[in-house]
Write a structure and sequence with these properties.
By secondary structure, this protein is mainly α. The protein folds into 2 domains: 4-467, no CATH class; 480-516. Helix content is 66%, strand content 2%. Strands 1-2 form a two-stranded antiparallel ribbon. α7 (193-207) runs antiparallel to α10. The N and C termini lie far apart (59 Å). 49% of the residues are buried. The model has no long low-confidence stretch (mean pLDDT 84).
């Protein structure tokens, strides 16, 4: 029951906010209700620590052709860090929203609904529970993004992103079918080795790493608050799958090639993140770069490292994306967050570079610079001027707003020291020190020189090749051709000669069946 408690609290709080908004549009205490519900949900996730691991299963479903088990959820050392990060992010969104002039309780309700679905995804114990949560999140993201974009080109990008996520969901279903066919039903506690490769590709496809793709080119329409929640919750629902994949799931012969593709994605994302004009414009590259580091950790038989990079993506990214009113007195928060990203001993990302396998120099050459680019970009964007002046706000706003950012920073420090298998790790100090020194150098170069250069064109040939836009455009062109053919056939059959053509097709089919018999 403890698994469902934060989910129920979030759903009830969202429902309450919606009802109050419709019944009393001028209700003055919506913020207090949202803050109270998010706080209770965060406390409920902390209560999971009293009984880990724990499972919750629904009655049996009649879908045994595809899924052997009924939907089941699991709270353990893998799901708890993600659940804690998501609920802390929801509370931080409400706390930092006090600086906004136009506060909409419906946005808070949407954030809570997304967070509840994200908790269902990160605690999924088997593919059926995960697919249900993924589908709900994907449909929510599809509808929300289509309503916020303008123009046919942007709408096509949204459809491409939705199709890529559906393909990842299909790989999970296919892995489940193959496991059932082999009389080894698929679940995430005892994962069959043969299913691991499909799950890795499913997570990589949904995160945009394997193969690398970035269909969302403009993030300005999805601003802070709900937009941040939408992007980070969706990423967390896929990142958790990386920690469930067994180390022997990927064939050793494929690992170097997959690591090379992952390194390419990490370097590209880190460079574009460093060059972005602001943190919201570069948000897709932050997600892609940190997700690439998580995928690399899984490929190196380090599932704990993937959790470290995944939760750092949520907490550090949330701190930066929600920090709209910046002042010098809060610069220490960015320093603590940056420290947690360095993989220094006893920080959140300290397990990130650990591995049971021997790492050659060819592994460190691309990935350490990729992490340095991400750190340098984080430092550069943290020093930018905010959208809102905190000095002109009311005293109570000045007191409450920093609490949201402090909360995410404290959760990051807490996870580095307590609560899961990756806590209190020494890591590789030499790798962390090298990364930190290189990041400071890159940040200085970016502030001194790169800001005066024009951003790389988002439609350049090399950018399109790296993003695999040519592949997605080809698939989209084939889809449009098939759609036109379908329209011609439909108009023909619905015309005056439709009945005659129907009889001709029927006779042709019957003749073929007769010849077959």
């Amino acid at each position: 029951m403890l698994i469902l408690l934060p989910i129920i609290l979030l759903f009830l709080t969202a429902l309450t906010l919606v009802i109050l908004r419709l019944a009393q549009p001028n209700f003055k205490y919506s913020w207090l209700i949202a803050t109270g519900g998010a706080t209770l949900a965060l406390i409920a996730v902390f209560l999971w620590q009293t009984n880990l691991p724990q499972t919750l299963a629904l009655p049996a479903w009649q879908l045994q052709a595809f899924f052997y088990y009924s939907p089941t959820w699991l709270a353990d050392s893998v799901s708890w860090p993600y659940a804690l990060s998501l609920t802390a992010l929801a509370l931080a969104i409400v706390l930092t929203s006090v600086v906004s002039a136009n506060v909409n309780p419906m946005a808070w309700a949407g954030t809570f609904m997304l967070t509840a679905l994200g908790l269902l995804a990160v605690t999924a114990e088997n593919p059926l529970a995960l697919v249900l949560a993924w589908t709900a999140l994907d449909l929510t993201e599809l509808i929300t993004t289509l309503l916020s974009v303008e123009g046919e080109n942007q709408s096509e990008g949204v459809i491409v992103a939705f199709a890529a996520r559906l393909a990842g969901t299909g790989l999970v279903i296919w892995a489940s079918i193959l496991s059932i066919a082999a009389s080894t039903p698929l679940n995430f506690i005892m994962l069959p080795t043969r299913a691991g490769m499909y799950l890795l590709l499913a997570a990589g496809l949904r995160l945009g790493v394997l193969p690398m793709h970035l269909p969302y080119r403009q993030e300005r329409t999805m601003r802070r608050g709900f937009g941040t929640s939408l992007r980070l919750v969706s990423a967390a629902s896929s990142l958790v799958l990386l920690a469930r994949i067994p180390s022997e799931a990927v064939a050793a012969s494929l690992t170097p090639y997959l690591l090379a593709l992952t390194a390419l994605a990490a370097l590209y994302a880190g460079w574009m993140w460093l060059r972005a004009s602001d943190e919201l414009t570069g948000r897709p590259f932050w997600l892609l770069g940190m997700a690439a580091l998580a995928v690399a950790a899984t490929l190196r038989a380090n599932p704990t490292g993937s959790i470290a990079w995944g939760t750092a993506l949520l907490l550090a990214g949330g701190t930066l994306f929600l920090n709209s009113a910046r002042q010098r007195s809060l610069i220490w928060l960015s320093a603590f967050v940056l420290l947690g990203l360095t993989a220094l001993p006893y920080t959140l990302t300290a397990p990130g570079w650990l591995s049971k396998e021997h790492s050659s120099l060819m592994y460190w050459i691309p990935f350490l610079p990729a992490q340095s680019l991400l750190l340098a970009g984080f430092l550069r964007h943290s020093l930018n001027v905010g959208d809102i002046s905190l000095e002109s706000q009311l005293p109570w706003v000045k007191a409450i707003y920093p609490l949201g950012l402090i909360l995410l920073t404290l959760i990051q420090i807490l996870l580095g020291l307590w609560g899961w298998e990756g806590a209190r790790q020494l890591g590789l100090w030499w790798a962390a020190s090298t990364t930190l020194g290189l990041a400071v150098l890159l940040a200085w170069i970016a502030i001194k020189f790169l800001t005066h250069l024009a951003m790389p064109a988002t439609s350049s040939r090399w950018v399109d090749i790296l993003r695999l836009d040519w592949l997605y455009r080809a698939v989209w062109a084939i889809y449009q051709i098939l759609s036109q053919v379908s329209s011609v056939i439909t108009s023909t059959l619905e015309g005056d000669g439709g009945v005659l053509w129907s009889f001709v097709i029927l006779i042709l089919v019957l003749s073929l069946l007769t010849l077959g018999i």
